[in-house]
Amino acid sequence: LHDNQAVRESLCAELETLPASAEDANSLQEAVNRLETRWHDTDALALPRQAAQALQRRWRDALRAAGERLQALEDAERWATISRLEQRAAFCDSAARRLMADADGADADTLRGQWAALPELQSRDLAEPLGAAFERLIDAVESAAARTELERRMREIAERRQQLCLHLEISSGAESPRELKQQRMELLVSRLRERLGERGNERADEGAEASVADPVAEAWKLLQDWYLCTPAAEIDGLDARFERAKQAMMGRQPTPEAA
Questions:
Q1: Which residues contact residue 247 at a Cβ distance below 8 angstroms, ignoring those fewer than 6 apart?
Q2: Rounded to whole angstroms, how far apart are CA atoms 117 and 125?
Q3: Residue 27's closest CA among 54, 79, 66, 78?
Q4: C-alpha 44: how far from chain center
Q5: Residue 42: what are its φ and ψ, rounded to 5°?
Q6: Contact partners, residue 34, CB within 8 Å, separation at least 6
Q7: What is the DSSP string of 43-89?
Q8: Per-residue exposure over 108-123, b if at least 16 CB sit within 10 Å of its own CB, e if not
Q9: To the nearest whole percent, how much of the chain has pLDDT over 90?
Q10: How far apart are CA 139 and CA 122, in angstroms?
């Protein structure tokens, strides 16, 4: 019995050390998964009753601590990605707006050098659309026809950002302008109906769990979508609204520094 107890104590000790030693979310998750497998493999070991109960509590506490650390690492990695996205989108927005104001003041080679100096994005799903947006900007520097087309696209993208901003204000709990009160309410009602419909469909399948929308995950996606919608024409007050919504979201989530 004492040997069996030592096995489980060793597993608890390993799990307790993981949060402090983990360097990234993936490695921590993999290590936790391996330990959970080993823990379940020892379920059948005979243990003194009091020791078994104490070890279960110790394991649950260590698992909860590892889960909290995993969430902090995932949030830090998301914020790091958002920061890289923000820098590249801001560069595209600024360069394109300057181009529209002064077509003769832009130089393609200079822009390429500045773009290459920005922090790289590891995700192809994010890097490719931003790269395509930058290439459209370069085309517009070199061609009057492409510049006219980019100006049209920038207006469309700005309209798309208006919608994204309203969605983000709802997800983050930030206020929207008074004149958008009715539009915000209609959007809330529409989203509620969609979610109720999803739950109703799932109840039709015996044993299916109802789908619960995750406002945090939705807000992360909205932040990404905002930065991928670039370059955009400037709309008075829109960038400030977005920053307020983003700050409201940051108030709910740990930033990289906090993690």
A1: 174
A2: 20
A3: 66
A4: 41
A5: -105, 10
A6: none
A7: TT----HHHHHHHHHHHHHHHHHHHHHHHHHHHHHHHHHHHHHHHHH
A8: eeebeeebeeeeebee
A9: 70
A10: 25
Output the CA–CA distances (angstroms, integers) from residue 120 to 13, 30, 123, 216, 227, in the order listed.
38, 26, 9, 25, 15
pLDDT digits (tens, 9 = 90+) for 54-81: 999 999 999 999 999 999 999 899 889 9
Cα–Cα separations (whole angstroms), residue 3 to 7, 42, 46, 120, 185: 6, 12, 10, 51, 63
Q: Pull the structure tokens for residue 41.
A: 């493999």
Token reading at 189:
């009602």
Scan for tokens 């390993």, then name that residue.
14
Q: Which two tokens stand for residue 142?
A: 């070199």
Q: Which tokens sit at 116?
A: 């290459």
pLDDT tens for residues 174-199? 999 999 999 999 988 987 888 777 55
Report pLDDT digits (tens) over 199-258.
Answer: 555 443 433 223 335 667 788 899 999 999 999 999 999 999 999 999 998 875 543 333
| Closest listed residue to residue 225, CA positions, set 161, 151, 178 | 161
Cα 33 to its chain centre, rounded Å, is 23
Tokens representing 52?
A: 């078994």
Cβ 233 vs Cβ 154: under 8 Å: yes
CB 140 within 8 A of CB 152: no
Q: Given the structure tokens 């520094």, which residue do they identify? A: 257
Torsion of CA 79, 85, 90, 96, to 10 degrees: -170
What is the predicted pLDDT for the residue at 2?
A: 77
Cα–Cα dist 259/106, whole Å: 40
Which pair of structure tokens corresponds to residue 57?
A: 């509590």
